[in-house]
């Protein structure tokens, strides 16, 4: 669709989508709104519970406990893993960054429809906010993660700093994911029902509670697909940074970068192309 | 496609009753707007819903609303236009189309500069304190942190909520909440101002102040659209009024003439007096044949 030329000098079409560079500039102008809105929504989200924001940490801790009981103690999927509790903790927290971005991103337009129908701003603000909230949650979870790592015998090393580029790449990927599902979720409301199922399948495919290498090495294409999937890749980087004996190959870094840049670039354009109709859903 | 709007533009300055009209700021050109409503009330429960999917029957929960049905108008600098009409006549949807918040399904809206709706309530959160909400609301309407620091005291004074500014907003009385929302929303003067029922808030004292503020905004803004059921407010503050009925323009003319006709039509004692008086407003234009009114 090409932009129609205005028949009236000085008048522009209302709600016309801006060129992508101007759109990005406006988006950057809204950075303070993104930060304020994310942190406000984050604290308001737990308003109606006694324990409040503590649930941000309690939920993944309970998940870790359940997974440890079932997968570690009952099913013994801890094959090929030295420090299983640390392995599991890193897996659960970092993977939930992906799934939270996915699920909350898909609702970012529909849950803020009042805002979309009242104020003019680049709509990408909304999926960016939900992703930022998920990132904040990951950073909060370090409060729980670091003691678990140290108590389970992982030494504090300089290599932990590799977490910074790893999380940066994962954030780019998660943002791309959120932008894509935000547009889909705005158009098809049933996305919200499908995504929890998708993220469950994805979780089992990404080796959150078992070592993909120990289980599927030698299965040829299955192993290639599983170890190439972004969920596995970002977990591999996080574990590489935090756990002893979890080497990351240059291939892992390359894949992580490719997924991050590719997903973000494609999804950003995809989301931007839908900009004009987010108020109509 | 753009013919009706062009006609409106060409004919508008020629009408004798309005002494001088500025340059056009908003041209609404044969706009239709349909939006989907996804209903939650599907009869028959889950099994019936699944059966409908398998048999490819249309889901009864999904329907679309044709809220605006072919509206054309031209607004000029210096005009304050009141939109009146019964509930569901498409007034708010038309405002959203002018603001570019909802895309017309047919037709185009042209504006000189950005049209902005007055209202920030969607960005505000009841659990947060008043001052946090001032920050949030001001950022939402596009103010920079520096501008907010500058305007903060003025907003607090205007809202007149005193020490309550540090308490969560859901502890406010409804009047206090409305005052704070209005104070934030009115902190910035857009080029084209769209107001949707924002005036009927607060006590008499605040209403006076908010009306004064609206007048100030009106002077700064080139053009104002006001949706209100308060016909007195339309008479007092608007130079022109447009009567919408079922998504179409029924009457467009001077505020007094259109409001007179509207009151005649909706006066319960006078059900049959439905013909709008076209003589009292010289540029009044009747869009619908009398039988359909």
List the main descriptive attributes of the protein structure presented here.
heterodimer, A: 281 residues, mainly alpha, 12 helices, B: 293 residues, alpha/beta, Rossmann fold, seven-stranded mixed sheet, three-stranded antiparallel sheet, 9 helices, 34% helix, disordered N terminus, disordered C terminus
Q: Supply Rg of chain A.
A: 21 Å
Taken in chain order, the helices and strands of chain A follow as EHHHHHHHHHHHH
CATH architecture of chain B: 3-Layer(aba) Sandwich
Task: Assign an overall shape of chain A.
Answer: elongated
Topology-level CATH name of chain B: Rossmann fold
* Number of beta-strand segments of chain B: 10
Main sheet record of chain A: none
| Unreliably modeled segments of chain B | 1-19, 271-293
Percent helix of chain B, as a range, is: 25-40%
Order of helices and strands of chain B: HEHEEHEEHHHEHEHEEHE
The CATH homologous superfamily of chain B is called: P-loop containing nucleotide triphosphate hydrolases
Output the CATH class name of chain B.
Alpha Beta
How many domains in all of chain A?
A: 1
Straight-line distance between termini of chain B: 27 Å
Oligomeric status: heterodimer
Strand proportion of chain A:
under 5%
Can you put this structure into words, describing what you see?
The complex is a heterodimer of chains A (281) and B (293). Chain A is mostly helical. Chain A has one domain (20-45, 54-277). Helices cover 67% and strands 1% of the residues of chain A. Chain A has helices spanning 20-29, 31-44, 55-74, 84-106, 113-116, 125-151, 163-187, 191-205, 212-216, 221-228, 230-242, 250-273; one strand spanning 12-13. In chain A, 44% of the residues are buried. Chain B is an alpha/beta fold and 293 residues long. Chain B has one domain (3-114, 190-292): P-loop containing nucleotide triphosphate hydrolases (Rossmann fold, 3-Layer(aba) Sandwich). Chain B is 34% helix and 24% strand. Chain B has helices spanning 3-11, 45-54, 91-98, 130-140, 145-159, 174-185, 204-220, 231-237, 255-266, and strands at 24-38, 62-76, 80-84, 106-111, 115-118, 192-196, 223-227, 240-245, 248-254, 285-286. In chain B, the strands form 2 sheets. Chain B has a 7-stranded mixed beta sheet with strand order 5-6-7-3-8-9-10, sandwiched between helices. Chain B has a 3-stranded antiparallel beta sheet with strand order 2-1-4. In chain B, helix 4 crosses helix 5 (145-159), helix 4 runs parallel beside helix 6 and helix 5 (145-159) runs antiparallel to helix 6 (174-185). Chain B starts with a helix and ends in a 7-residue tail after the last strand. Mean pLDDT of chain B is 79; it is low at 1-19 and 271-293. Chain A binds chain B through residues 4, 6-8, 10-16, 29-30, 32-33, 36-37, 40-41, 43-44, 47, 112, 114-121, 189, 276-277, 279-281, and chain B through 2, 5-6, 9, 23-25, 27, 35-36, 38, 96-103, 108-112, 114-117, 119-123, 125, 127-128, 132, 135-136, 139-142, 144-145.
